[in-house]
Design goal:
By secondary structure, the protein is α/β, with parallel strands linked by helices. Helices cover about 50% and strands about 15% of the residues. The protein is built from seven helices and eight strands. The strands form three sheets. Strands 3-2-5-4 form a four-stranded mixed beta sheet. The chain has a two-stranded parallel sheet with strand order 1-6. A hairpin with a 2-residue loop joins strand 4 and strand 5. The longest helix is centred in the C-terminal third of the chain and has 28 residues.
Amino acid sequence: VAPTGYGKSTLQNAVKFYGIKPIKKLSTRIPRPNEYDSGEFIFCSKNEFKILNNKNKLGVVYTYNQNLYAVSNDQINETISSKKPHILTTSSIDSALKLKKLHPSHVHLIFMDMPFDYAGFGLEMRMVECWEKLKDGNTFLIEKTLQNTKHRLNHVIEEYLNYKNNSGYADTVLNGFTIKQNIEQLLDYVYKNKLK
């Protein structure tokens, strides 16, 4: 669990090489460039998502930035049955706490912490990607991007404060200043606790 821009996806992709598989989230948001191959999300329409949810196929469901997210109940059960460590990243503290409540002996809440200004760098890189798409000078798109950026920054600040207020629920906190340090701390926690 960590706020937007803290490097959750980077951490998740790095620990694959140590045998810690990602748990794919179902999402209704539009994929970022090259995200189809990342293995972190299964993308679907809001209608498809609602159909699965109405059939009770989804575990903890949450909304973030006007998009729906969940993990399927089948995937949760398969992960628990595999008896191998997996990683599920989220910015939603509430959904992480609900998942822990449903599966207390199988879910470990691991929070990522770092100085807020460092986290802003990750968000800034995402904004640069947006600006690259706007090189044609379309003023409507530029105005829309500025509005979205303001909304996202306000949301990140709220997320950060919520995270700080709830970090006491964590089983452990990764507090490295680099992704490499967080990877080392995560692996140390997984292997010391013999997580499955």
